[in-house]
Amino acid sequence: MKTFTLSFLALFALVFLSSCEDDDDQNLTTTELMVPDTYSFFRDGASTVSFEDQTTGIAMAEELVSAMLAPSTSLDQLNDLFQNPAGVDPFSTAELNESTVSVRSEVAASRDLFGDDATRAAEIKADFDGWLEAQATEMFPNWNEVASPGQPGQIAEGSTPRYINAWGLEYDQAVGKGLIGALMLDQINNNYLSPAVLDAGTARADNDAGITEPDQPYTYMEHRWDEAFGYLFGASASPATPLDDLRTADNFMNKYLGRMENDADYAGIAGEIEEAFRTGRQAIVEGDYEARDAAAEVIKANLEKVIAVRVVFYLMQAELNYRSQPAQLGAAFHDLSECWGFIYSLRFFNGGFTDYHALSEQYLVRLRNAAGDGFWDIELSELTTMAEEIAALTGITVAEAGS
């Protein structure tokens, strides 16, 4: 265990406090927290860390996306994997089948973004329903066809077949990358790390008094924080030290945080997030809610950066593949399919001057290129322009993110 001085967190907190405090009131009191070196917290000798539902949700999402690449799968089976209805056993393990968790119920379900907007939440869930239906009705019947403009089927990326719709999109990538925003980012940033959730009801008073959940060793607030941690690190083989298998633990947010960590331009981002999770959790233990919220802002800002960087990266990589001699269309379409899911995920950003939902929709329209043949003949200058615009809006650079 080490003593952690709240310095880098204070810098982030000042940004969010500056709009509502006078300059004379912006100095945060330096706080020392006894932050453990691993994500390990105990009460009376029992671990208080728990995020089983998040681990289950990640595993269910993995099976759903995998099933989209098995053409013998029926639409009913895809829907069952997404919805996990009672009385059906759609998953490969008894543990998942016995769970009451459902991927669909957790999509677009955050308190901050959708607590008062059931209509928009329903529209987002319907997008995923539509992608699953399209995979079963458009792609599976054309699985062995050669794709061409207007014709769904397969296109080669080297020795790997990619399965694209009539205008070039891989629906499995739309679902997989879309879930990174609609499930992982939304639940972490806009739900479990939201003060509206962490401080709901008597949560602060109960936490200060050490009142735990019924028959559990953790307080309500501790558990909410752990659930946020679980959607990023819950599939890790060693969640107490989750950076040990970063990038390989799952195929969602964890994987792409790992890719950023391996990029010299962003090295250190994973450690910063992991330390902020430990710091915020210890702040809850010690009842320091200012430190908790500052740690949450570090996590939120960095996870949004993961999404923005992947958007710009795939736009620029697609352009390179189009410009190759000969053009690598399979690789370019795969890049743009991943990009599609990450652009969709922009709508789960919370805050700032932009309505990210509208922004996401606008860029998807441009990427769709409906006036032409979709990805088959999209203007390459449009890819560069979108990358530059999104980089500017999200505070990153094309030079760093695009390489």
How would you describe what is shown here?
- With 403 residues, the protein is mainly alpha-helical.
- 56% of the residues lie in helices and 5% in strands.
- Strands 1-2 form a two-stranded antiparallel sheet. It has a two-stranded antiparallel ribbon with strand order 3-4.
- Strand 5 (153-157) and strand 6 form a beta hairpin.
- The longest helix is centred in the C-terminal third of the chain and has 35 residues, at 289-323.
- The protein is globular and about 65 Å long.
- The model is unreliable at 2-30 (pLDDT under 50).
Beta-strand content: 5-15%
End-to-end distance, in Å?
Answer: 37 Å
Low-confidence stretches: 2-30
Query: Can you give the helix content as a percent range?
Result: 55-70%
Instruction: Record the strand order, biggest sheet.
Output: 1-2
Report the strand count: 6
What is the general shape? globular
| Rg computed from alpha carbons, rounded to a whole number of angstroms | 22 Å
- Give the SSE string: EHEEEHHHHHHEEHHHHHHHHHHH
Q: Count helical runs.
A: 18
